[in-house]
Amino acid sequence: MSSDESSPLLPRIEDQTLSVPHEHPIFLRVAHSPWTFVGQKTLLTSRLISMVYTTVVWAATLHRDIKSDGDNAKLFPFKADNISLTLQAIYFWVTTIWTLQHLRSPRNRPQREGGNFITRAPGRALSFFSIPRTTEWTPGKKFAFSMFYTSAATFPFVTSFLHYAVLGDRHRGHWKGDIQHDWLDFSLHGVNSVLAAFEVLLMSSVRQIKPFVGHALAMAVTPGLYFLWAGVGHLLTGDYPYDQVDPSNVDPKTMLFNVVTSMALGTAGFLAVQGLHEGRDILAEKAECDRSY
Asked: What is the rounded distance in angstroms from the CA atom of residue 123 to the CA atom of residue 242?
């Protein structure tokens, strides 16, 4: 494969020792677009833009919270939208580095040369920042990264919906005429979902997430666990990030309803991402078939 080629949906590996052809692992699939018109250099450029943008938004949000008042700064790691943004930014950092290394060396991961610690350091660094070797594609690692990918793709939709439809005027912010505030608000609850959609539809060729039930349960349970995380935030800071997770502001029945609703939204977000995968695969495979004629 030349460095500027794209491998749409990375066709299955034919292995005569297996009764069924097996798929390329998710580590490789995040380094390839499913579309022939998105070459590796274009993909790398898109990932760099996404990485820089989410990093700048993350840093600007933290700076705004520190500058505004101490409470916002203390609650920064306990706000759902900040957690979602952090996951997304880390994901883009990881996949951008992997895509760059895969563009430089599409066939093999750099090997660690012999010698002392000093001479081995460059090889170890390249190895660390490269897509895992075939021998390292253990089921546990694939599932862990698959969960990371699914979370980064799902939670931006969930937090955006919660921001505009559930949390109400106090947290909705509206447009205040402050360019920085409005830009950050839209980036946290608008651009984040656009980037997540682009990731699924254009920038990665990850197929439908499997095991389906395991991921669906995780996406349902995680929003429920967030209420416990908000409680940890209260223990450490004395405040809750949102009124809806504060037991002193809502009765037990309402709190239970909030937990169940959050879990339902996590499931709905996961199903929406699965739908995007399915639609993209159908369109990309059809485009590839049309191109072959």
From this structure: 47
Alpha helices in 162-207 (DSSP H): 169-172, 179-186, 192-198
* Contact criterion met (CB below 8 Å) for 248 and 255: no
Q: With cut-offs at 50, 70 and 90, classify the pLDDT of residue 129.
A: low
Tokens of 22: 């097996």
CB 251, CB 5: distance < 8 Å = no
Closest CA to 45 of 205, 206, 203: 203
Using a cut of 0.70, tell me whether the model's pTM lies above it.
yes
Query: Diameter of the chain by CA atoms?
Result: 65
CA distance 260 to 251: 14
Name the burial class of residue 146, with classes exposed (0-12), middle (13-18) and buried (19+) by CB atoms within 10 angstroms of its CB. buried
Q: Which amino acid is at 13?
A: I
In the structure encoding, which two tokens stand for residue 14, read together?
A: 């034919």
Report helix, strand or coil for 22. Answer: strand
CA 163 to chain centroid, in Å, comes to 18
Residue written as token pair 């034919």? 14
Three-class SS state of 177: coil
What's the pLDDT score for residue 290?
58
Q: Are 193 and 157 in contact (CB under 8 A)?
A: yes
Does the pLDDT value for residue 169 go beyond 60?
no
Distance CA 137, CA 120 (A): 23
Sequence-ordered list of residues with C-beta below 8 angstroms from that of 193, at least 6 positions apart, any chain? 156, 157, 160
Separation in Å, CA 31 to CA 42, 43, 83, 151: 12, 8, 24, 18
Percent of the chain, pLDDT > 90? 46
How big, in percent rounded to 5, are the helix, strand and coil portions of the chain? 70, 0, 30
